[in-house]
Amino acid sequence: MLWILLSLLTALSVSAQDTWVKKCFSGMTTYEMAAYPLIYSLPLFVVSIAFVPVPVFGSDFAWAFAVSLPLNAVGFLLYMKAIKISPLSLTVPYLAFTPVFMLFTGYIFLNEIPGPRGIVGILTICCGGYILNIDPVRWRLLAPFRAVFHETGSWIMLIVAFVYSFTSVIGKKAILNSSPLFFGVSFFITFNLCLICLMRLTGKIRFAAFRKSPVNGFISGIFLYLQTLLHCFAVSLIEAAVMISVKRLSILFSILLGKAVFKERHASIRFSGALLMLAGTLLITL
Predict the structure, then answer these.
(1) pTM (2 decimals)?
(2) pLDDT tens across 59-71, in order?
């Protein structure tokens, strides 16, 4: 069950990066906030590629790699915007819907269909996502859904969840047609360079801004580097929808960190929703 450990470590890395980036860089623009981990993780990926064997490429590698670039760029920038403008506990939970979207994208691109217990587990995780968004003072049955429209970061993150349902399965297609380590490292060298250059050429970022907090930037880069490698290895070992369901336990970690670092409200009821998501994960893994 190595994939479970790798998926949990991925979840922890994701929540740690979200918290660190929001804490250290939320005073910047969305583009500068997004560029920090990209710039400081790039040397790690460049050094790593020298030690990665070049695999035999399958016929689907090129198109899957190419399509993943713009989709990940859209998802990444929207993700950063969401956690910048809204609390972690009102944005990150909507990523719980990625596995639901992946029931369809996983079948279309990978012909993967989780078993009955896996489907129940995924739906249980979504129910936990509903509870996470209950406001005990103004609760109504449809209130958590209405929260999507009242909280800008929430509906942006729901769009991210939909985008990531494609990037996860298309990325796995590229992994299956190469190797986890090669795809993870080569993709993020290309992705980081393209997105950094695009933001610089369009005047969205200035390189001088990234010399102000090199230590904080390097830590954010390490978190991005770790979650990338862990994700690629984990998703190569199990169905993409199942792996992403476990990875979404980052929601639980983000709630705890959001309460500890940012003093976010309603942590107890949101934590109960996260526990329900944990139950869904146990249904999947057992």
Answers:
(1) 0.82
(2) 999 999 999 999 9
